[in-house]
Amino acid sequence: MKLYIYEHCPFSARVRYVAGMLNIPLTLIYLDYDDDKTTNELIGAKQVPLLIKDDGEALAESLDIIQYFISLAKSNETIEISSDVLEWQKSAFRPLQKIGYPRWPHMALPEFETYSARQAWREKKESDELNFDKLLQDTPNIAREVESLIKQARTLLLLEACQPLRLIDAAIMFSILRSFFSAPEIQWDQTVKDWMESASVKTHISLLK
User: Fold this and answer.
1) Is 147 exposed, middle or buried (0-12, 13-18, 19+ CB in 10 A)?
2) Integer Cα distance of 74 and 68 in angstroms
3) Half-sphere exposure for 178 (CA within 13 Å, toward CB)
């Protein structure tokens, strides 16, 4: 199966996380950020992640892809996200943008290898509220906000509890937390960092450093 992705994309990462944990092999295809043709020709829209199944059928919503993987693996997991993780995701997404948007185009990510891709990103993502230069200058304040989210994550990840974490909850949290590695100024709870590094190894998904 082929999975079209951006390396930075949290929705791509959560799909890859589930595939990795369920030992489902994928051929990853990294798209240039300014590639407006490839997925349009396949599904009529510019969208990732995009799964092309072995029979040629396309799945383009991350939860649909995850549900397919769960069914394929005959797992008892579900795509029902816990309310606490949904709330955490809601509060974490804007800090994720503040950390990632000004940094990702300047990292060694395949979707941003060309100048035109980096320009396309800035033109689409930068706004008055998300001014890249101002965000970089405000890193200390944003880092404190992120560090609070990381502390909350320690509890949500059930790292000190006996019950297992739902696969979908772990996938969502991993996909967001990995983006916070993009700013070295952020101080990590060691237990959460250890969990992230272990999950990165298990799923073969690199942290965004």
Assistant:
1) middle
2) 10
3) 29
